[in-house]
Structure formats: structure tokens, C-alpha cells
Design brief:
α4 crosses α5, α7 packs antiparallel against α8 and α11 packs parallel to α12. Helix content is 60%, strand content 0%. With 293 residues, the chain is an all-alpha fold.
Length: 293
């Protein structure tokens, strides 16, 4: 097998990478790239949540059609962030506690997990890694949001959406089996095109501009958009923290040099080069990750 770094050698990988890249770029330009569909339950809850005078019991009956979603929303409603004096096993009470906007965003967050499933074992493993990164980023963003005036549940959803563009890339890999073993080539494709395709998917799903920007700017560490910090800045700093303790963290710029970090004014940096307050919120972060994995 020829590595993606190889030049002037015979083999399938470089040709396959070029062909896949051309296929994706052509489909992007022509608008024919096959995009994933947002699961029906997420669409149904979004439509219901936007109705005037919605009865919470009607929403609960809709949610109950998906037992997994019902269990997830109940679990989140009694997590550290939402916890009140008494826990509840009643879905209607849980939805009242969460509120319509949070229920809508949390439903979309839950539904995304179902998209990260492809039968091919090699692609499945890569999707699992991407989903785990997204979940960790989302949990961090949820906790960070409270410290800088953002909606935590929207931040959670944004963290999960940012890598959605990896799905069309990996789904197309099955047409190029020789490329499946070339991890360098796959990394290159994902690093260069996930953000662009994420923005395309989020536009296709009719998410607002702020969430589209989160996908487009993922991994753009030196992003310096004029004006105050936005949701893309928050998720960017959260994503940065997901790399702490990994070898790849050494290739990233210092946290204190990120324009997004400077705008957010999130406070003290600890000895691990991460935000000190996140260590105190580890239980909440772990609860959110457990609910989504």
C-alpha cells in the first residue's frame, strides 16, 4: 500500500484520493453531493416546537414515539445542569423543566447519533472516533456556555453538528476500497473538506447562519471575526480542549493566542494548558458524554 505521502510510485492510493477528491468537489459545485437527512423525529419536534400555544403533553406524546429519545431527555433533565430538588420519571414534567427550545435542540442532538452508522468496519471505526470527538466538544461547550452568556443547549447542539460534513466524505470511501487503509489520505480529506461540507449540510437542513458558521469554522484556530465572540468561537475553544493530553495537541497554537479565547474572556488557564474551571465541572461533562455516547 502506498502512503498518501508517496510520490512517483505506482499504487492505488494517490489515484483513489485524487478521484475521490474530484468527485466530492464536482458534486459540491454542481449541488449533487448526496447529503444526509435529518432524522424524522428531529424534524417533527422542530415543527411542533415552533407552533403557537403548543401543549406540552402533545409534545410529550410525540417524543414518546421514540423510546430512546424519551429516555435521553429524562436523563438530561435530571443531570447536574438541570437538577432541581426532585428528579422526575414523567416525560411531560421533564419537558417542562427543559423548555421548548432546549427540547428541540436536545432532540436534534440525540438524533444526530443515528447518522454516524455505516456498515463498513473501517469506516464505522473512523465515524465512531469523530462522534466521540464531537460529543466531548459538545459537552465542553455546554459547560463553557454558562460562563460567557451563551445558551448551553444550543452550544451542545453546535458542538455535535460541527463534524457532520465528515459523513458524505466517509460514505464515498466505500467506492475506493484501496483508500480505506491510507489513514494519511483520509485525514487530509477530512481536515480540508469537513468544514465546507458541514456548512453545506447545515444549510440543507435549514439551520441558521450562526450554526452554519460553527461547521464552516471548525478547526480554524486563528479565526478572528470582527465583533464580539460568537457561537463558532465558543465551539472552537471547546474543540481545542478536546485535544488536551493527546499528541496532536502539541501541533496546535497556544490557547492564550487564539483570538476566540481572547474574546470569550473565560478566565484562568490551568497547568494543563486548559481552562481551570472545567476541572470543577468534570462531573457534568462526564454525564453529558455518557448520555450521548
Amino acid at each position: 500500500m502506498v502512503s498518501g505521502h508517496s510520490t512517483g510510485q505506482t499504487g492505488n492510493s494517490p489515484t483513489d484520493k485524487e478521484q475521490l477528491l474530484k468527485r466530492i468537489i464536482t458534486a459540491l459545485k454542481s449541488g449533487t453531493l448526496e447529503l444526509p437527512s435529518l432524522p424524522d423525529i428531529a424534524l417533527d419536534v422542530r415543527v411542533a416546537a415552533n407552533q403557537d400555544n403548543l401543549n406540552i403533553e402533545d409534545l410529550a406524546r410525540l417524543v414518546q414515539q421514540d423510546p430512546g429519545l424519551s429516555a435521553y431527555l429524562l436523563k438530561v433533565s435530571i443531570s447536574s445542569y438541570y437538577k432541581r430538588r426532585h428528579a422526575t420519571n414523567n416525560l411531560g414534567s421533564a419537558l417542562r423543566r427543559l423548555g421548548l427550545n432546549a427540547t428541540r435542540d436536545l432532540t436534534a442532538s440525540y438524533a444526530l447519533k443515528t447518522l454516524f452508522c455505516i456498515n463498513n468496519a473501517q469506516i464505522k471505526r473512523r465515524l465512531r472516533e469523530i462522534w466521540q470527538r464531537s460529543v466531548y466538544t459538545a459537552a465542553l461547550a455546554h459547560v463553557m456556555a454558562r460562563h460567557c452568556g451563551f445558551d448551553p443547549d444550543r452550544a451542545l447542539l453546535a458542538g455535535l453538528l460541527q463534524d457532520i460534513g465528515a459523513l458524505p466524505i466517509l460514505a464515498n470511501l466505500k467506492e475506493y476500497p484501496a483508500l480505506l487503509d491510507d489513514q494519511v489520505a483520509i485525514d487530509d480529506l477530512l481536515n480540508n473538506y469537513t468544514g465546507k461540507i458541514s456548512a453545506l449540510v447545515l444549510n440543507h437542513w435549514q439551520f441558521d447562519h450562526e450554526l452554519v458558521a460553527v461547521g464552516l469554522e471548525r478547526g480554524n484556530w486563528l479565526r478572528d471575526k470582527p465583533g464580539p465572540a460568537d457561537l463558532a468561537d465558543l465551539v472552537l475553544v471547546a474543540r481545542y480542549h478536546s485535544y488536551l493530553g493527546e499528541p496532536s495537541h502539541k501541533t496546535l497554537p497556544q490557547l492564550s493566542t487564539l483570538p476566540a479565547f481572547q474574546k470569550l474572556k473565560l478566565g484562568e488557564i490551568g497547568p494543563q494548558q486548559g481552562l481551570a474551571f472545567l476541572r470543577e465541572a468534570q462531573r457534568e461533562i462526564d454525564e453529558l458524554r455518557s448520555a450521548l455516547l
